[in-house]
């Protein structure tokens, strides 16, 4: 499994990353703090030693004079055995005495004349902390300024800082370990409903389409509801399919039974004229049955969601003209006036010519069959639209949608299969067109229109 | 640096020979005796007499026959000067001038010895891992038996003070001690003693009353005592006195009971030592049980190693004298000893007390 595939790891990664960064920051901060603390503690030694020295400074024989207390130097060294340096410098910057020519501090004092100036210096290859005390003699007449400079090496400070840091480090690491454990538990707990959902789905009977029933947190409840919605749609589709198969079987069985009965009846006769009569009837029935089977096939194909035929640019006018030529004869024989209203310019859409011809044929057929005397095929542009309008009895608005269901027939119609409009609907869907059923001209009859996607002027 | 060297040289002029008997050109040379192994040599500069040094070097060479060893015996003054002039000449510096050795190490001139023996070396006898005390030499008095017969036992500083105060007239010019103004060792002891007790100044005054002779070295004092010119010697280096007075029954070495200063020879490896590996081996040998054993048996310097006891060791001396022993602390206070103004202050006071 790839790393990104695990939600658990992804969560862990994204939570641990900021935690690590935060931890590093805390560690750096702890290090800086430890050094500052160590410096503060050890700077006291510089302060005390320089004070002990400064207190000894006197004016004697017209010059600065002092008797260096050895303890002042001992003060500067701790168990870490630091290297110790000191010097006494007069107001003109001349070294009076000392074991090292320590550099002065370029900074000005901070107002307080007795304040010590601390800083790190690199002196003759040694890393030292230096304290400079600027003060002056406080005798009756002499107010000579002088500077006491003391310095020691950093071993004690570094050791203390390291010790403080180690103590902090142990605490920070312990906290990090606790936080990590907490994080792991929290993620596991948070992902638990997902596991439950997975188990619930996996544990289902593969044939059932019943909705999932389990309580989940909001985010997963949405997922569960989506899945349930999908299941509901699948249930409806399956119901439709079952009904379609039932209807189709029924539709095919009736003419086949008729054929069978007619043949049986004819066989009992001996008159060839009767036979011929029966055969003619049987031919008509089988032709109708064949047409029914053909319609069922196209409907099945159109209903298949996987069916994605390649659409090519077509001129609607040309298609309508061809359909008109094909159906004009039969309509004329039935006494139906078949007309056409086309646009002057060509109306281009993307589609499949034989499917569109089938749709127009079905619509003309329906109009003729359900009592239309005047059927008009209309082509409109902007948006591209193909409409078939009749002046028959029409369909009440409340029942128009029902007409799209396969095998639905209106009233006592015995002739049609009830598939015509369903097939037109399927063809419309294949073309991405909208099927509109409305009343015809002057509120009479029925108008069925396919509105194709395209430019709206 | 200028300032520093000026200070140092001013000081160096005042450092006196602790071991006067030694001439400036004394050297010992041990060529490598075995041919195998990498040929290397070792140069030691020390302020330690050849008779005391010889057994140590011989013992070392038994362990390291492939190493050519050259020992040069110098005065503490020469040793210090030579080092400052040529810091890359010697591999090991061995000197009894504690403040100067400390000052060199403090300024970062010494390298660090990281060996198991160095780790175990007692904390009071080393500074960091750079400066190692290898001997334990009490500062003693030498008293002629005639004095003891006449005026009674002299066991302590208090006894000496009483003797000088009572019989200053009888002892005129027959007492000898270091001149703190011209002897580095004498100055070091004076400063240490003045820190130990204010009564030291009474003693100085009493010494002044007796018109005490001031000399520069233990050797001079011992010669005068042996010749009978002096009857009482104060603040002599115990190790030299013990070695020199073996056949002088009329002179008694007194390790004072009230307090006894103890000086120590400090060894360090200069950072720029030409043969650092050999130097580390030698220093490691000096603080090893073997080297310290040689020190205890064949010299009078006093071994420090805690595992050793018996004659010639610090352990025995501690058992005998216990609390009275005052080893000079190996710490930053040694730097105060070298302070110019402090020196002036102390010597002024000393002169004032000493001059009747």
How would you portray this structure in words?
The complex is a heterodimer of chains A (457) and B (356). Chain A is an alpha+beta fold. Chain A has 3 domains: 3-163, 2-Layer Sandwich (Beta-Lactamase), CATH 3.30.450; 218-303, Signal transduction histidine kinase, dimerisation/phosphotransfer (DHp) domain (Helix Hairpins), CATH 1.10.287.130; 312-451, Histidine kinase-like ATPase, C-terminal domain (Heat Shock Protein 90). Helices cover 51% and strands 18% of the residues of chain A. Chain A has 8 helices and 14 strands. Chain A has helices at residues 7-56, 70-76, 155-202, 218-268, 272-303, 316-334, 353-369, 420-430, and strands spanning 58-60, 63-65, 84-90, 95-98, 116-123, 126-136, 145-153, 312-315, 337-341, 348-351, 374-380, 385-389, 434-439, 446-451. In chain A, strands 4-3-7-6-5 form a 5-stranded antiparallel beta sheet, with helices on one face. A 5-stranded mixed beta sheet of chain A has the order 9-11-12-14-13. In chain A, a hairpin with an 8-residue loop joins β6 (126-136) and β7. Chain A is rod-shaped. Chain B is an alpha/beta fold. Chain B has 2 domains: 2-136 and 264-312, 3-Layer(aba) Sandwich (D-Maltodextrin-Binding Protein, domain 2); 138-262 and 340-354, D-Maltodextrin-Binding Protein, domain 2. Helix content of chain B is 44%, strand content 17%. Chain B contains 16 helices and 14 strands. In chain B, strands 1-3-2-4-13-6-5 form a 7-stranded mixed beta sheet, sandwiched between helices. In chain B, β2, α2 (50-63) and β3 (67-73) form a beta-alpha-beta unit. In chain B, α2 (50-63) runs antiparallel to α13 and α7 runs parallel beside α9. Chain B starts with a helix and ends with a helix. The model of chain B is unreliable at 12-24 (pLDDT under 50). The interface between A and B is medium-sized, with 28 and 22 residues. Chain B: This is Iron(III) transport system substrate-binding protein. Chain B: It comes from Halomonas daqiaonensis. Chain B: One of its GO terms (cellular component) is outer membrane-bounded periplasmic space. Chain B: Keywords: Signal. Chain A: Residues 188-239 form the HAMP domain.
């Amino acid at each position: 499994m790839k790393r990104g595939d695990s939600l658990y790891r992804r969560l862990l990664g994204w939570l641990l990353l900021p935690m690590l960064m935060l931890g590093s920051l805390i560690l750096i901060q702890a290090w800086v703090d430890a050094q500052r603390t160590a410096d503060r503690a050890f700077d006291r030694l510089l302060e005390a030693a320089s004070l002990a020295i400064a207190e000894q400074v006197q004016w004697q024989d017209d010059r600065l004079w002092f008797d260096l207390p050895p303890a002042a130097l001992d003060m500067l060294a701790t168990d870490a055995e630091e290297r110790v340096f000191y010097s006494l410098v007069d107001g003109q910057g001349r070294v009076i005495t000392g074991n090292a020519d320590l550099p002065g501090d370029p900074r000005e004092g901070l107002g307080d004349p007795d304040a010590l100036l601390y800083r790190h210096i690199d002196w003759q290859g040694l890393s030292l902390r230096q304290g400079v005390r600027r003060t002056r003699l406080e005798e009756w007449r002499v107010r000579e300024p002088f500077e006491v400079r003391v310095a020691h090496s950093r071993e004690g400070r570094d050791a203390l800082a390291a010790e403080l840091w180690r103590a902090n480090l142990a605490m920070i690491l312990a906290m990090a370990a606790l936080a990590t454990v907490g994080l792991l538990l929290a993620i596991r707990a948070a992902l638990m409903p997902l596991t439950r959902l997975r188990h619930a789905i996996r544990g289902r009977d593969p044939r059932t389409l019943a909705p999932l029933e389990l309580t989940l947190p909001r985010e997963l409840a949405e997922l569960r509801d989506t899945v349930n919605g999908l299941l509901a749609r699948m249930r409806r589709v399956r119901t439709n399919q079952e009904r379609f198969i039932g209807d189709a079987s029924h539709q095919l069985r009736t003419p086949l039974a008729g054929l069978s009965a007619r043949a049986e009846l004819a066989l009992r006769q001996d008159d060839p004229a009767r036979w011929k009569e029966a055969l003619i009837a049987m031919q008509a029935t089988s032709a109708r049955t064949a047409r029914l089977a053909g319609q069922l096939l196209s409907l099945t194909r159109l209903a298949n969601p996987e069916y994605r035929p390649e659409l090519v640019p077509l001129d609607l006018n040309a298609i309508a003209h061809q359909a008109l030529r094909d159906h004009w004869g039969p309509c004329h024989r039935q006494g139906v006036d078949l007309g056409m209203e086309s646009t002057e310019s060509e109306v281009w859409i993307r589609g499949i010519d034989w499917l569109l011809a089938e749709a127009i044929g079905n619509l003309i057929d329906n109009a003729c069959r359900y009592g239309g005397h005047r059927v008009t095929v209309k082509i409109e542009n902007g948006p591209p639209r193909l409409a078939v309008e009749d002046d028959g009895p029409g369909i009440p608005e409340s029942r128009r949608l029902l007409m799209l269901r396969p095998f639905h027939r209106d009233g006592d119609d015995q002739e049609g299969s009830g598939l015509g409009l369903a097939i037109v609907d399927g063809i419309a869907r294949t073309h991405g067109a909208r099927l509109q059923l409305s009343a015809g001209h002057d509120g009479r009859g029925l108008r069925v229109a396919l509105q194709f996607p395209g430019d709206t002027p | 640096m200028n300032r520093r060297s000026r200070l140092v040289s001013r000081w160096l002029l005042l450092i006196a020979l602790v071991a006067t008997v030694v001439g400036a050109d004394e050297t010992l040379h041990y060529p490598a005796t075995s041919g195998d192994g990498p040929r290397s040599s070792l140069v030691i500069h020390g302020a330690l007499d050849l008779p005391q040094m010889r057994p140590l070097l011989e013992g070392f060479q038994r362990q390291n026959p492939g190493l050519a060893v050259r020992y040069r015996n110098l005065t503490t003054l020469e040793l210090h000067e030579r080092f400052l002039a040529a810091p890359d000449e010697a591999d090991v510096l061995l000197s009894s001038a504690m403040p100067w050795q400390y000052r060199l190490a403090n300024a970062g001139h010494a390298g660090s010895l990281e060996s198991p023996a160095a780790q175990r070396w007692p904390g009071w006898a080393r500074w960091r891992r750079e400066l190692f005390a290898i001997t334990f030499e009490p500062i003693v008095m030498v008293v002629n038996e005639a004095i003891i017969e006449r005026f009674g036992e002299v066991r302590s500083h208090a006894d000496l003070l009483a003797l000088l105060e009572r019989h200053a007239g009888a002892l005129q010019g027959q007492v000898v001690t270091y001149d703190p103004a011209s002897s580095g060792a004498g100055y070091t002891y004076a400063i240490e003693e003045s820190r130990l007790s204010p009564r030291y100044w009474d003693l100085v005054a009493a010494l002044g009353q007796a018109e005490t002779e001031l000399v520069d070295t233990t050797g001079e004092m011992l010669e005068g005592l042996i010749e009978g010119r002096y009857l009482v010697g104060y603040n002599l280096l115990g190790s030299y006195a013990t070695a020199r007075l073996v056949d002088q029954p009329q002179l008694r070495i007194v390790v004072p009971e009230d307090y006894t200063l103890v000086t120590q020879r400090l060894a360090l490896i200069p950072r720029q030592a030409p043969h650092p590996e050999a130097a580390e081996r030698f220093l490691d040998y000096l603080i090893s049980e073997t080297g310290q054993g040689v020190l205890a048996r064949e010299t009078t310097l006093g071994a420090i190693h805690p595992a050793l006891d018996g004659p010639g060791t610090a352990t025995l001396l501690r058992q005998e004298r216990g609390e009275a022993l005052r080893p000079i602390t190996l710490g930053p206070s040694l730097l105060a000893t070298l302070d110019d103004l402090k020196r002036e202050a102390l010597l002024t006071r000393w002169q004032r007390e000493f001059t009747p």
